[in-house]
Design goal:
This protein is α+β, with helices and mostly antiparallel strands. The chain is 54% helix and 32% strand. It has a 4-stranded antiparallel sheet with strand order 1-2-3-4, covered by helices on one side. It is found in: Membrane.
Amino acid sequence: MAGLDVRLARILIAALGGVLAALVGAGVWIAVQARDEQGREGDKEAALLAAGAHARNLISLDYRTVEADLQRILDTSTGAARAEYAATADKLKSTTVGSKVVQQGVLRAAGLVSLTGAKAKVLVVADVEIRWDGSANAPQARYHRWSMDLDKVGGAWLVSKAVQVL
């Protein structure tokens, strides 16, 4: 009988060990899933904020601060978008200063279309009032809608493409 009791005890201990291992494995899996979901939520929020900031940078230009304004546009972009902004910066600066342009933009909305790994697509809605210092012309309101592609570069979301949509 003693041998049977020892065998039953060993079987019981092995079974309990298996159950414990399964519980630990499930706990680790749940923790990893929760961490991944938190990371995705953080990326969603960061991509939306980055697209909104870039849109505000595009529509908030002032001839008195145009150098810093243009630098903010470059700082929130990457790839082809950044190259395009850099290529047209001198002309934009010249026009802005020469016409004494003051644009004040307001972000109205930003919505995530997709997020896959280090790439996101965001739709952005923003409005701007444009005036010209020293001009008798009335300010003009403009309404912008963009589809923006963003890439996560070095932990930061940057706009790689901004296309106006109707």
